[in-house]
Design brief:
The chain is an all-alpha fold. Helix content is 80%, strand content 0%. Helix 3 packs antiparallel against helix 4 and helix 4 packs antiparallel against helix 5. The structure holds hydroxy diiron-OXO moiety.
């Protein structure tokens, strides 16, 4: 039994779950007439699939019996785009916590996992920063639609 590999297998499903959550956020933004946010969140969703795929390939390479786990239904009743981005930021912090947990476990148990997970530790710095910068911009706009559309325009070019 290798707990580090088991945890990584769990995280693989959680990365797909992240993609699912961001896909629902993309749909919300689209329905909320913010195409830039929708585009940006859609790209985020695709990035999560890439994170999951990388884990899948690693687990297969070390001969692990990869199994996908059950996913929760993503929240879809957001009150506004601010709540969407706030929720996403909190989600990324949870992902970071889980990645660090895997690293701590793998440090003693499996050096292959420990080395592999370093990329994700670095990636999470960027992931959290993306959402916290966006959140700061939204907080400054204070729900003013002029400001929100400027941000929306910027996000369209991701
Ligand atoms: Fe995969 O980093 Fe975001 O969730």
């Amino acid at each position: 039994m290798n707990k580090a590999l088991d945890k990584l297998n769990e995280q693989l499903s959680f990365e797909y779950e992240s993609a699912y959550i961001y896909k629902q956020m993309e749909i919300f933004a689209d329905g909320y007439d913010l195409p830039g946010f929708a585009h940006w969140l859609g790209k985020q969703s695709m990035e999560e699939v890439e994170h999951a795929e990388k884990m899948k390939s690693f687990l297969l390479d070390v001969g692990y019996d990869v199994k996908l786990l059950e996913m929760s239904t993503p929240k879809n009743d957001y009150k506004d785009i601010h709540e969407v981005i706030q929720t996403a930021y909190e989600h990324e912090k949870e992902v970071t916590r889980r990645i660090h947990e895997i690293a701590n476990l793998a440090k003693e148990e499996d050096k292959r996992v420990y080395s592999f997970i370093q990329w994700y530790i670095d990636e999470q710095v960027e992931e959290e920063a993306n959402f916290s910068h966006l959140l700061a911009m939204l907080e400054r706009a204070k729900g003013n639609w002029g400001g929100m559309y400027i941000i929306d325009g910027q996000l369209a070019s991701r």
